[in-house]
């Protein structure tokens, strides 16, 4: 520890003591969102005292919209040529896809208010047969964060999307990629495609990037791997916040609840805080600082290889 940090230890300790003494009531009641602001302030002080390691980690892949394909020119057959038979068209039917038959069996609530990413990681591992839904296993994952945290992933230290991906890899699932999309529909569509093709869950980061959900399936009016215009009507979600109630987002939903598009959009990109609460824009918007590859985008952790068996 250098002399600069040593000189500031007493000041930081006094500041934390004062903040806890002066802010106890508003934190307990979360009046006008003061509890959340208080938590962020304490987090900044803790980060100042013990910053996360500045080391390389899994990068965020920015996904931009693909250009529309050029029209295919018509080909005129020579008089003697035989036309190629047209393939039988694939019927357009509604789909209802999930990667687990029993959401309650793989669900674990986060042990503390801060452990949503830990519980989300745990539930993915449980679905894939690499973990178990116990508090002991969640605590084990929680205690290993020092192996995976980095400044690029979380300016506050601790858990970010890259830490989740590295934790999954440490327990036997290395094939998840962090992707950031310019639009909400694009992120939801690619998540649905990945679930269909890989038979693995997707990890979402709603609440402006402050929370973690596990997307286990979806409903659509057609198979999104076949039809480019398939409309995703909603997703099946494991929310580790359950059964808690948020002062901003309301009551959490039980394991495997189907969230329609309106509810997904309220929780993920578009919802603005109620009167008296700090207004935050859509997509990833973190108060601790800038994340150039994520800010204003919709971040998900996507599986890239199919499930064994």
SSE blueprint:
Blueprint: H1 3-29, H2 34-49, E1 60-63, E2 95-98, H3 103-106, H4 116-127, H5 135-142, H6 161-170, E3 176-181, H7 184-198, E4 202-204, H8 206-209, E5 213-220, E6 232-238, E7 245-246, E8 250-251, E9 257-260, H9 261-267, E10 298-303
Helix pairs in contact: 1-2, 4-5, 4-6
Defining traits:
309 residues, alpha+beta, Cathepsin B, Chain A, 2 domains, 8-stranded mixed sheet, two-stranded antiparallel sheet, globular
Give a verbal description of the structure.
The protein is of the alpha+beta class and 309 residues long. The protein folds into two domains: 3-49; 60-65 and 93-303, Cathepsin B, Chain A, CATH 3.90.70. The protein is 33% helix and 15% strand. The protein contains nine helices and ten strands. The chain has helices spanning 3-29, 34-49, 103-106, 116-127, 135-142, 161-170, 184-198, 206-209, 261-267; strands at 60-63, 95-98, 176-181, 202-204, 213-220, 232-238, 245-246, 250-251, 257-260, 298-303. α1 (3-29) packs antiparallel against α2 and α4 crosses α5 (135-142). The longest helix is centred in the N-terminal third of the chain and has 27 residues, at 3-29. The chain is globular.
Largest sheet: 8 strands, mixed
Total helical segments: 9
Number of domains: 2
Give the termini distance in whole angstroms: 50 Å
Give average pLDDT, whole number: 83
Number of strands: 10
CATH architecture of the largest domain: Alpha-Beta Complex
The CATH class of the largest domain turns out to be Alpha Beta
């Amino acid at each position: 520890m250098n002399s600069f940090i040593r000189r500031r230890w007493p000041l930081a300790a006094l500041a934390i003591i004062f903040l806890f003494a002066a802010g106890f009531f508003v934190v307990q009641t979360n009046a006008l969102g003061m509890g959340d602001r208080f938590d962020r302030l304490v987090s900044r002080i803790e980060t100042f005292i013990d910053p996360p390691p500045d080391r390389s980690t899994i990068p965020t892949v920015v996904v931009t919209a693909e250009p529309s394909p050029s029209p295919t020119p018509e080909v005129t057959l020579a008089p003697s040529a035989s036309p190629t038979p047209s393939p039988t068209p694939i019927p357009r039917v509604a789909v209802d896809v999930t990667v687990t038959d029993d959401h309650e069996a793989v669900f674990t609530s986060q042990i503390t208010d801060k452990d949503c990413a830990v519980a989300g990681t745990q539930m993915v591992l449980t679905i894939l047969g690499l973990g178990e839904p116990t508090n002991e296993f969640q605590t084990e994952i929680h205690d290993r964060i020092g192996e995976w945290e980095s400044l690029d992933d979380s300016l506050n230290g601790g858990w970010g999307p890259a830490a989740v991906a590295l934790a999954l890899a440490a327990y036997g699932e290395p094939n998840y990629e962090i992707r950031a999309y310019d639009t909400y529909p694009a992120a939801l569509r690619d998540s649905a495609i990945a679930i269909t093709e890989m038979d693995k869950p997707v990890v979402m980061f709603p609440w402006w990037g402050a929370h973690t959900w596990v997307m286990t399936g979806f409903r659509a009016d057609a198979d999104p791997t076949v039809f480019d215009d398939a409309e995703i009507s909603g997703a099946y979600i494991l929310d580790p916040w359950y059964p808690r109630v948020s002062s901003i987002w309301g009551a959490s939903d039980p394991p495997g609840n189907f969230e329609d598009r309106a509810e997904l959009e309220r929780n993920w990109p578009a919802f603005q805080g109620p009167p008296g609460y700090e207004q935050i824009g859509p997509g990833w918007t973190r108060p601790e600082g800038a994340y150039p590859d994520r800010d204003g985008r919709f971040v998900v952790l996507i599986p890239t290889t199919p499930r064994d068996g």
